[in-house]
Amino acid sequence: MHEPHEEGCELEIVEDDRHAAHEPRQATGQADEGENILKIVEEFQREGEQQHNAMNDDSSDDDDDDYHVPHNWSGYDFLKLIVNEGEAVPWEYRQNEVCIGSVYANSDNMKEAIKYWSTLSLQRQFKVVKSSPRTYDVCCVRIDCPFRVYASMGKWQDFWEVRKVVEHTCLLEQLEPQHRNLSAGFIANYMYPLIMDNPSYEPKSIICAVVEEFKYKISYNKAYRAKHKALEIRWGTYEASYHNMPALLHTTCLRNPGSYYDLKTYPCAKKPRKQVLQRSFLALGACFEAFPHCRPVICIGGTFLTGRYKDTILTAVAADGNRQLTSWRKNQGILGIGFCRG
């Protein structure tokens, strides 16, 4: 009786295990539960085999044999490639050439580009037909030539654009000795870097540089004016310097407490509402404090200006009381600076 009971119990346990193996197991959300579910394990194995077969597939070699790389591709110079990192500046233009669609930041750049193109590349002269705040039109100096360059600034634009370009039909028989479009201002912009590096650059050197670059010879007077225009671009005009003198003296006194300045002007003969500077005076506050410690001797020194206006700068000096007057320039202390015209 005992043995059949044990065999029956053993069969009952086997049948329960088989029944449980065939039932679909539900996921309960426990960690590493997928390792015990047969369907999930088989799915992972199948995906792994597919990926392994795709990586070891040699079918790509057949594609390389069908499509050959052109021979000229291997000789291309990839060093000249340019990466477009954003929108380009809208007034970039091709150097030494003016064409339809060229854009410029302002009218000065546009005019300089047309002059440079006409003198250096075309070697022909043009005249201005119309020049207004929003349009610029030029044509050839010869009547029978249809050459024309028309540029304008649109109503809603902040840059200039070339709208029309007609080529020259006139023949260039020989190079003219002079060019009317080589103005002093144009030469000043061209020679600006050289003049700034060497302010003593002579007009004769400017003439030689223009002949070498543009093949035209300019006069000595034009080269002289071009040099001074280049200096004015950097330092400003003489008139602007005199106009800024009152503001300069006022600011100097504000930055140096105790200082004093004075100006004397007279009305202009042609424009009575405008004042003309006659003379000025400036004394720093430190000079007032130092004067009681100086010897009771005041010397006046003058320097003559060699610019456009032949003026004089006067300087009042006194010797230091702690030393003997062995050298006037060595022991001098500036008391005041005066400016006098005429």
Describe this structure as you would to a colleague.
By secondary structure, this protein is an alpha+beta fold. Among the domains are: 103-166, no CATH class; 184-235; 242-341, no CATH class. 37% of the residues lie in helices and 22% in strands. The protein contains ten helices and ten strands. The chain has helices at 2-22, 38-55, 60-66, 107-122, 184-197, 203-214, 220-235, 238-243, 245-255, 285-290; strands at 103-104, 126-131, 135-140, 148-152, 160-166, 260-267, 275-283, 294-304, 311-320, 332-341. It has a five-stranded antiparallel β-sheet with strand order 1-5-4-3-2. Strands 6-7-10-9-8 form a five-stranded antiparallel β-sheet. Strand 8 (294-304) and strand 9 (311-320) form a beta hairpin. Helix 5 crosses helix 7 (220-235) and helix 6 crosses helix 7 (220-235). The longest helix is centred in the N-terminal third of the chain and has 21 residues, at 2-22. The radius of gyration is 44 Å and the shape is flat.
